[in-house]
Design brief:
Layout (H helix, E strand, L loop, with lengths): L7 E11 L5 E9 L2 E9 L14 E4 L8 E7 L5 E7 L8 E7 L14 E4 L7 E8 L5 E8 L4 E8 L14 E4 L8 E7 L5 E8 L4 E8 L14 E4 L7 E8 L5 E8 L4 E8 L1
Antiparallel strand pairs: 1-2, 2-3, 3-4, 5-6, 6-7, 7-8, 9-10, 10-11, 11-12, 13-14, 14-15, 15-16, 17-18, 18-19
Amino acid sequence: MPIPVRASIRISDLGWLFQADGKIVIVGESAWEDSQDLILLRLTSDLEPDSDFGSEGVVRYNGTGHKNDKGFAVTVQNDGKIVAAGAEIAEGREREDVLILRYTSAGVLDADFADGGVFTYSYSGDHSDYANLLALQADGKIVCTGSLDDGAGVKILLLRLDTNGALDNTFGTGGVTVYQSQFSVFDNAFGLAIQGNGKIVLGGTINNGANDDAVVLRYDVRGVLDTSFAENGVFTFNGAADSDNRTNGIAIQSGKKIVGTGYSSNGQEKGALTFRLW
């Protein structure tokens, strides 16, 4: 039976996963009536809507601004609770704020998380801030990365929440750290992984003043750039043609080696980029 959704749906490339029981959780956004809502879907292993989740397998989040809610990433905790991330335009605001939601395994907002299941974050000024990726630490804390716009340019945002949905004050500055390259035209994170020792690895892109470089950043458990990694915590790659490059994904191999993937341009066309760091 098809999922009963009378709307246009868009799913993020990274917005789905398999639960341990084989069920599939998907996050994205849905044009619904006069607004765009974040949408969560859960399918059984037979690709049928899961009747034990939300309304016939579907959950919608229509934020306080009832405007433009987006879903980009999803993960599932060991207790079955589902964490989703993206952005919303909150009531009284014009541009997006970081949005992180936690639902019970039945698809109900978790009252024990943040403000009734909803965490939002806005950098100074009414500019666009996004949560692109999620990861869970071994202790249950939630790591999120994405981007923020401070009015002067786009920067990489990294934040960590305690298990109750509050910013972790032992991380960065009040739970938040921001990476700004020299030019900070368009710095953004598209890959996230946590090493066995708790260090956090980000992949993405930073601007070098002429074009975009692929970048990998590594932070220690306190949210500080790890100076033992690459050049003071920052690895960059710019292809031979000095054109645009990007890290889209990050994975950790056994032995703590970091694998990155993305694309590199020769000035005329883009090709697949894969690299491994010691």
